[in-house]
Amino acid sequence: MFATMGALGLAPAAEASPRVAFTPPRPSDFTLRGRSAARVLVLGGGVAGLAAAYELGKAGYRVTVLEAQDRVGGRNLTLRGGDRLTEIDGATQRAGFSRGQYMNAGPARIAQWMTTMDYCRELGVPLEVFTNSNAEAYIYNENAGMKAPVKWRTAKADVYGYVSELLAKATDQGALDKQLTSTDKERLLAFLTDFGAIGRKTDDFAYKGGGRRGYTVDPGAGHVAGTPLGDVPALADVFASGVGRAFSFEFGYSQAMLMFQPVGGMDAIPRALAKAVGHHRIETGAAVTQITNLARGVRVEYRSGGRTRVAEADYCIATLPPHILAKIPHNLGASVQSALATPVPVSTGKIGLEYRNRWWETGHNIYGGITNTDLDVSTIWYPSSGYGGDRGLVVGYYNFGGNADAYAALSHSARLDRALAAGAKIHGPEYRRNIAASASIAWRRQRHIEGGWVSWPSRGAEYALLNRPAGNVYYAGDWLSYEIAWQHGSFESARKVVTELHQRALKG
Question: Quick check: 485 and 255 in contact, CB under 8 A?
């Protein structure tokens, strides 16, 4: 009956909540069994570690979080004016951003289906829309032979138009007769005519451009009908440019609009988590040096304040990146050590460019969004807040892999010069002018993290092993999820481990 009511819209259907159900631990779980909550050490004060500590704290677990850095958040880092960023080799930069300007150096967007949204609501973190795609942003593939950048809307109109023309012609000429009935063919041709803005059969289904591509003179009042962009490129040139490859990310489940960001910076999430956990339960500047699984519990050694200290608990949840955990001596076994060394760290980097004027809005009508390019900057992000203000911060590159490694090898000033040279190819000389401040991050060069995220060669025996506890030691993090590099993965992994540990603790 409940299922029938759901189908009629009178009760929520199963499809309305596709996530794995999660029930937070409660104090009554212990009092009803006459037990007391266990002691838990959480290694790492990133999103996964803080989420685990937060959920366990709801049931009264005695939780201590050990974080090697002098702040919580891990890769959730927001850089503001006055912040200092030191790399592994000691190279240090001080962010000179003005008040109200910031760069989300790590995660910067949240899809509306993600568990992250639930925690923002629960913890009272205000959100605003993050513009993940924008018709006014650019695509520029210099290595594919493009001579100038093209607006996203223009590229999409041309790709959709020519693909529709080709498919319409093939359909009309009988190429799909084995797959389509005559009625199907009529419906498909009607769809393609609208989808690609192509001509009808009398025009040989030709794509000729039109208003979807944009205007040289926008429609206005009186007799100003607007002047559509001319000079539609040839079909071969559109496909050769590779612009169509940029559109696929819009369809990704994790990338489709609407997307969101916390107001004022992504680090509002770990700050809210830390407050809920209790700052007295979090020890920063505590670098783990030894993990020992005991017959009944766990012993952890760590360095803090220049001294070696020891902490013991009934259980431990290790949320450090796997390649960092692999460097820490332990007695968890050779198979665990091999599994920890299996995921490969991925290089990523960003640079924030604060401008004294928002030229991308006044000169290009770009209000948020991302420009895609095959230059080594990979992407350029425009701010999704502060519209119409005096200043703004552009992410001059968010790149990955080899491109990120190339920038990481440079000095901070050289990174800036290289990023500006690339951006000027898209935006011209104005890209180099009126810069008030800049700051860059190379995640492979950040101590205790050493990578933007990890990549599993395969999710085989090693992945399965680390999704189980080794004695009294559990593992959690986005790297043990199917949404690696997203806070959602960290939250989901933390919930999984909390559930498993809690069930075990209740059994005694």
Answer: no
pLDDT in tens, 337-381: 999 999 999 999 999 999 999 999 999 999 999 999 999 999 999
Are the C-beta atoms of 81 and 99 separated by less than 8 Å? yes
* CA proximity to 321, closest of 447, 408, 409, 491: 447
CA of 195: how far to CAs of 54, 160, 177, 212, in Å? 48, 7, 21, 11
pLDDT at 61: 96
Model confidence pLDDT, tens digit, residues 461-485: 999 999 999 999 999 999 999 999 9
pLDDT (tens digit, 9 = 90+) per residue, 93-149? 999 999 999 999 999 999 999 999 999 999 999 999 999 999 999 999 999 999 999
| 174: helix, strand or coil | coil
Q: What φ, ψ does residue 352 adopt, rounded to 5°?
A: -100, 130
Rg (CA), the chain: 26
What's this model's pTM, rounded to 2 decimal places? 0.94
- Least Cα distance to 97 among 438, 421, 412, 379 occurs for 438
Q: Rounded distance, CA 172 to CA 163, Å?
A: 14
197 within 8 A of 210, measured Cβ to Cβ: yes
- In the chain, count H helices and then E strands: 15, 26
Q: 3-class DSSP state for residue 394? A: strand
Give which of 481, 480, 249, 202 is closest to 379, Cα–Cα: 249
Closest CA to 366 of 353, 351, 384: 384
pLDDT at 33: 60
